[in-house]
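Ticket #4471: structure output looks truncated?

Reporter: J.K.
Steps to reproduce: submitted the chain below (115 residues) through the standard prediction queue, then opened the result file.
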Amino acid sequence: MLLIRDQQRVAMARVALPKWIANHLQQFFPRECAALGDAGLRDRVREGIARAAAHGFETEIHISQYVDLMFVFGTDFDTDSALAWPQPILSDRTISAAERMDRLLDAGRRHGQEA
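Returned output as attached by the reporter:
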């Protein structure tokens, strides 16, 4: 019987994550992905995963949601001085990553409705 440890399962999921995110982005942001091309999309996904991790997001769903926010509000939405709402949420490490992501998504929805 083959035994797969939790660490191995996590490692396998991390290998598949960039491809899954790229497929997701192609479905929901087809024009943006086409403009980037395959290599550009791979780079953007890698960058998004790294940026999400730097902000403390570790689960696949939070990483994917972070990359979605990058596609909606711009690659540098987390540091863009024109966007006042992301930085306070991202820098508040007194709340969990899950709560920070929920707040980011809510703020993003409100911001998108104002535009």
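Triage note (M.O.): checked the attachment and the full token line is present. Helices lie at 6-28, 30-54, 60-73, 86-91, 97-114.
Status: closed, working as intended.
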